[in-house]
Design goal:
The chain has 101 residues and is mainly α. The protein has helices at residues 2-30, 34-40, 47-58, 77-95.
Length: 101
């Protein structure tokens, strides 16, 4: 009788240990590292978009923040916000909203 309880106890301990190992590996595999996450979801404004912003937003509105000759945005935080808002509207106009489809 004691042997059955002993074997059952060892099996239970082994099962709990195995489930902890599996759970640990699953959690480690499912969460990407910070560097990988940043690389995968990068949202920088690319050169072609900066050129479009400079042409259609900055020069068209004669923005006083433009630098250089020909004028271009300085690409600081304030210009990135303005460019992001312009590009958001620009791509929405080009692609159309979901209600138009």
């Amino acid at each position: 009788m004691h042997v059955i309880w002993l074997v059952s106890g060892y099996l239970l301990i082994a099962l709990v240990a195995l489930s902890c190992v599996v759970a640990g590996r699953r959690s480690r595999l499912s969460v990407p590292s910070r560097e990988k996450w940043i690389e995968e979801f990068r949202t920088e404004i690319i050169e072609e978009e900066w050129a479009r912003v400079a042409e259609r937003q900055c020069r068209a509105s004669a923005c006083p923040r433009m630098i250089g000759n020909p004028g271009r945005p300085p690409r600081d935080a304030e210009c990135r916000e303005c460019a992001g808002a312009f590009l958001d509207d620009h791509w929405r106009d080009l692609l159309g909203s979901p209600t138009q489809r």
